[in-house]
């Protein structure tokens, strides 16, 4: 177990991620490949570049939905409605794009012009996001996800189980490959940053790095939204607007 974790953290440069998270993904790959021992799987990684690629893809954090935790989006809507100034926003660790598209729809609802930069380390997820086409399934109820918006047909075309983001929303979002731990923020003048359900997957020692990058990305007074089970590890950078919904303001 130690050897395979060492290989993943050092050779694949994934030191930031929690060992429990890494091993869940390794176990899933072992089952898929029919490998019965960690030692055997380590040999596979060392000799099969395609498996290394598959594991990296599996390690990408891609759990997402439109308007995940609707109560957070409702609170964010109330905050945005306090003024009608144009917004520049960053959706960090955006997975397949449903979060930044949700934000684009919300800003249209509140009357805000918005430019969104959405980033992730997974190029496959970003390719899905750029297409803006999603398919409902037994585990993905897109109608329910999108029910936060009363008249969602203004933003999404539907054809059976296929949901396509309309051009007026797509044009508000630019997708870029970016590592929030290793790279500087894509800009330093954001009014709003969403970094939701990412901190829970990484080791505590790397959280101050992420927090500082989020701080540097925001204008003074800018808004930061975290996942509902996440907390900030560095005091003094942000003040709480809504602690329950993990919405903060840069000081």
Please specify the SSE layout and strand pairing.
Elements: H1 2-11, H2 19-33, H3 38-47, H4 49-59, H5 70-80, E1 87-91, H6 98-110, E2 114-120, H7 123-131, E3 133-135, H8 142-145, E4 156-159, E5 162-165, H9 167-170, E6 173-177, E7 190-195, H10 207-217, E8 218-226, E9 238-242, E10 247-250
Helix pairs in contact: 2-4
Oligomer state of the chains in this structure: single chain
User: How are strands sequenced across the largest beta sheet?
Assistant: 6-2-1-7-8-10-9
Counted up, domains total 2
How much helix, percentage-wise, in residues? 25-40%
CATH domain class of the largest domain: Alpha Beta
Please tell me about this protein's structure.
- The chain is of the alpha/beta class and 251 residues long.
- It folds into 2 domains: 58 residues, no CATH class; 181 residues, Vaccinia Virus protein VP39 (Rossmann fold), CATH 3.40.50.150.
- Helices cover 39% and strands 21% of the residues.
- It is built from 10 helices and 10 strands.
- The strands form 2 sheets. It has a 7-stranded mixed beta sheet with strand order 6-2-1-7-8-10-9. The protein has a 3-stranded antiparallel beta sheet with strand order 3-5-4.
- Helix 2 packs across helix 4.
- The longest helix has 15 residues.
């Amino acid at each position: 177990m130690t050897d395979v974790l060492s290989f993943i953290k050092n050779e694949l440069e994934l030191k930031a991620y929690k060992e429990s998270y890494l091993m869940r993904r390794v176990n899933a790959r072992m089952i898929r490949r029919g490998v019965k021992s960690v030692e055997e799987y380590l040999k596979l990684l060392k000799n099969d570049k395609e498996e290394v690629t598959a594991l990296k893809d599996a390690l990408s954090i891609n759990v997402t939905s439109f308007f995940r935790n609707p109560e957070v989006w409702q609170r964010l809507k109330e905050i945005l409605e306090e003024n009608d100034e144009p917004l520049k926003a960053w959706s960090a660790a955006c997975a397949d794009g449903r979060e930044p598209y949700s934000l684009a729809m919300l800003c249209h609802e509140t009357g805000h012009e918005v430019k969104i930069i959405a980033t992730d380390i997974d190029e496959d997820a970003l390719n899905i996001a750029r297409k803006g086409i999603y398919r409902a399934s037994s585990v993905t109820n897109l109608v329910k996800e999108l029910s936060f918006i009363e008249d969602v047909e203004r933003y999404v075309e539907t054809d059976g189980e296929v949901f396509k983001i309309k051009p007026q929303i797509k044009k508000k979002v630019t997708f870029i490959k970016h590592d929030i731990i290793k790279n500087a923020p894509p800009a330093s003048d954001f009014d709003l940053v969403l970094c939701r359900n990412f901190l829970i997957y990484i080791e505590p020692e790397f959280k101050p790095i992420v927090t500082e990058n989020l701080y540097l990305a925001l204008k003074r007074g800018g808004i930061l939204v975290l996942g509902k089970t996440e907390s900030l590890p560095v005091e003094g950078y942000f003040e709480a607007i809504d602690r329950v919904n993990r919405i903060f303001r840069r000081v």
